[in-house]
Design brief:
Length: 566
């Protein structure tokens, strides 16, 4: 009955195929969505960690800078208090009369408080009386127009005042002052003691503490007046905080240690900021990191994440498409499933038969190899342990080389020429000199059963030539020739085709004739050629060297159509 080819195909297009189609579409969707979801999740988590690390670094740096400013103000306040106590009740005329004495005291106080601090005592008329930097204060300078001087003149009391930054009329440096009012015996205004700090000393410290050249660090007075900034700006610009801006609102709220964002009106850079107050003084520090610099490493990693996600998407998409194609192929294959199962069953049975045959063959080869080794051990003379070990080792190595040749050709046989070249390798190919052994003959494939015996024959002849024959003397040579005689295809089992091999030594020590008694090598050769190969061996001791002729029936050796010389 003819087979209905359409029925399996129709069955393959049924509910199972529909389900596989839906699964394939879902896999395609997942192959795109899943890597992207993972990418977004990893990127978001990395973004949060990057901001958290930046916040921690920002808070730590702001605390360090606030501590530095607090120390500077504290040393200024100590210097002002010590100077005010020391000069209490001292008239301006006394100071002007002994300027070097008072300068020495101020200079010592400066060394204690720090070299960046400068102390100046100003009279009620605005003239400098003495300072810590010069033994004689400069003449012709009037400081009565300075804001800090006017503030103390108009505000009785002993509270220190943080003055706006200004440019020194003596050195041209940008300074800001912490100043204290001097009172006369009746509380009247007697002048000002001003402790000046170079703005550059703050900026130098900030340069060392900041992690990025674009970090902005600002010192503000409580009313929003800018005292110092990195990067520096004009000290006389009178820059103030916008009370409605992010920093102004943060300062007004009194909240510290909270990171907030803002765009600087000075350089237009968007920064992440933190505010820290200077404890005990009417000032605060604002430290800002550029948001772009904070997120730059994250953006670099984002590119790497994107490449990985894209690669994963492409790989999963390829796998999904491949899976869908294979599912479709499976639907088509279901139409002939029964036939394929039958064919596969037959293949498995054939494979099992081959495995059993191979197991028997391996068992047979192993037994043969062990028999050869056993015969070698039995025939090798035991004159002394060292010579016995050397003899056995040489013969076993010859068997091993033959075994390697058989394994290389999957036990189909071994090339006779390759077998002989392997045994005579030191004498056939020599760098810079001509060969000591020459091989001539057609391509012949030696079957597995004859490979190891022929290897043993070549080994025994070569060993004898090295010890006693042509290869033991300078200039000695060996010529090995072979041919196949008779009709190989006529009756191989009857021996009509035969392999003839001739071993001829020349140039060796003179040979007087056959040895008085047959040696061990001769017995091994006769045993192998006659006993294992069923052939004939003739040994001739000519004056020029040994000639060995052996003839083996092709029931043991079969010719093969191999390309090139054997």
């Amino acid at each position: 009955m003819p087979r209905d080819e359409s029925r399996p195909a129709a069955e393959g297009a049924g509910p199972g195929a529909a389900r596989r189609s839906v699964v394939g579409e879902l896999l395609l969707l997942a192959s795109v969505a899943f890597p992207m979801l993972v990418f977004l999740g990893v990127a978001a988590q990395d973004y949060r960690r990057t901001l958290q690390a930046a916040h921690a670094e920002l808070l730590a740096a702001a605390e360090t800078m606030a501590g530095h400013a607090r120390n500077v103000f504290r040393f200024e306040a100590l210097a002002l208090g010590a100077t005010e106590d020391w000069l209490r009740g001292v008239a301006d005329s006394d100071i002007l009369a002994s300027p070097r004495q008072y300068h020495a005291r101020l200079a010592a106080l400066k060394r204690f408080a720090g070299d960046d601090l400068g102390i100046t005592v100003i009279g009620a008329d605005g003239r400098p009386l003495v300072d810590s930097d010069r033994a004689t204060p400069p003449r012709g300078i009037d400081l009565s127009d300075r804001a800090y001087f006017r503030w103390h003149r108009d505000h009785p009391g002993g509270e220190p005042h943080v003055a706006a930054p200004l440019r020194s009329r003596v050195s041209g440096e940008t300074l800001f002052f912490l100043s204290l009012r001097r009172n006369g015996p009746g509380g009247e205004f007697a002048g000002v003691i001003a402790a000046a700090v170079r703005q550059s000393s703050f900026i130098q410290f900030w340069d060392r503490a900041a992690s990025d050249p674009l970090d902005a660090i600002s010192l503000f007075r409580d009313d929003g007046l800018l005292l110092a900034r990195r990067p520096a700006i004009d000290p006389e610009a009178g820059t103030r905080l916008d009370p409605d801006g992010p920093i102004g609102r943060a300062a007004a709220s009194g909240v510290e240690g909270r990171v907030f964002g803002s765009t600087s009106p000075i350089d237009g850079v968007e920064r992440m900021n933190v505010l820290r107050r200077i404890e005990g003084y009417p000032a605060f520090i604002v430290h800002g990191m550029p948001r772009s610099a904070v997120l730059a490493p994250w953006r670099d990693r984002l590119v790497a994440y994107g490449v990985l996600a894209g690669g994963a998407t492409a790989a999963l998409l390829s796998l999904s498409l491949l899976s869908r194609r294979r599912a479709r192929a499976l639907d088509l294959a279901n139409a002939t499933l029964e036939q394929r199962v039958e064919e596969r069953t037959a293949e498995i049975q054939a494979g099992e038969a081959r495995l059993r045959l191979l197991a028997r063959e391996v068992d047979h080869r192993a037994k043969n190899a062990l028999s050869v080794v056993q015969a070698t051990l039995r025939l090798t003379p035991r004159r002394d342990a060292e010579s016995f070990a050397a003899s056995v080792e040489g013969r076993v190595l010859a068997l091993a080389r033959a075994q390697t040749l058989l394994a290389a050709d999957q036990w189909r046989g071994a090339s006779l020429g390759t077998l002989l070249r392997t045994e005579l390798a030191p004498f056939v190919a020599r760098e810079g000199e001509g060969p000591l052994a020459e091989l001539r003959g057609p391509a012949v494939l030696v079957p597995p059963v004859a490979t190891q015996p022929l290897a043993m024959v070549a080994h025994e002849l070569a060993t004898n030539a090295v010890k006693h024959g042509a290869l033991s003397a300078p200039g000695g040579r060996v010529l090995v020739t072979w041919e196949v005689a008779g009709d190989v295809g006529a009756a191989p089992e009857g021996g009509a085709g035969r392999l003839r091999l001739r071993w001829e030594e020349r140039g060796g020590p003179p040979v007087a004739g056959p040895p008085a008694q047959r040696g061990f090598g001769s017995r091994v050769l006769q045993s192998v050629v006659r006993g294992q190969l069923g052939g004939r061996l003739d040994l001739h001791w000519h004056a020029g060297g040994l000639v060995a002729e052996l003839e083996v029936p092709l029931s043991a050796v079969a010719r093969a159509g191999m390309a090139g010389a054997g």
